[in-house]
Amino acid sequence: xxxxxxxxxxxTRGLVAFAATLAAGALAYRVLVGGDADEIETTVVDDVRGxxxxxxxxxxxxxxxxxxxxxxxxxxxQRLSDDSVLLSNxxxxxxxxxxxxxxxxxxxxxxxxxxxxxxxSGGVRVEGEQSSESAVILTDQLSxxxxxxxxxxxxxxxxxxxxxxxxxxxxxxxxxxxxxxxESNVHGRFIP
Length: 192
Known about the structure:
The mean pLDDT is 79. This protein has one helix at 4-33, and strands spanning 49-61, 67-79, 84-96, 100-111, 117-128, 135-145, 150-161, 164-174, 179-189. Strand 2 and strand 3 (84-96) form a beta hairpin. A nine-stranded antiparallel β-sheet has the order 1-2-3-4-5-6-7-8-9, with no helix packed on it. The N and C termini lie far apart (121 Å). The protein contains one helix and nine strands, in the order αβββββββββ. It is α+β, with helices and mostly antiparallel strands. The protein folds into two domains: 1-41; 49-189, Lipopolysaccharide (LPS) transport protein A like domain (lipopolysaccharide transport protein A fold), CATH 2.60.450.
């Protein structure tokens, strides 16, 4: 028969072995099955950002060296997933000798990878040089082909000339030629 001291040591060793086995089992379970308390989350980011600009002004010069296109935006960021460019709170000045100065403003814009067209949305406003005869175009969305100087939309549009206004659906403006065409549902209001 064992003494009380031997029994106490054997009991202590047994309890320590049992606790160690239990801890090892819990650790193995957590590693194999996974836990939920302190897990590190890993996610795949679909829209990884490339370059990012804040409070930006970009200028494209014409053949004569004068500014042809001036773009101002609160932020410009490239999306690496599709190489598109996103713009926020933007203003774009477009100037030609034939059409003069036009200013486009919008809450947001997107330029696809082709870089030829700028897609504008959110309170879009297109305005000719300040004069009593200049047009103001208001819509929610439009596309602007920078190279062709072409503005188009299929959305509802309001065109204002001083106190006069025209409303319609769909619009096509060729800035270089100074032409504007409303496509359908045209209604006008002319105040003398």
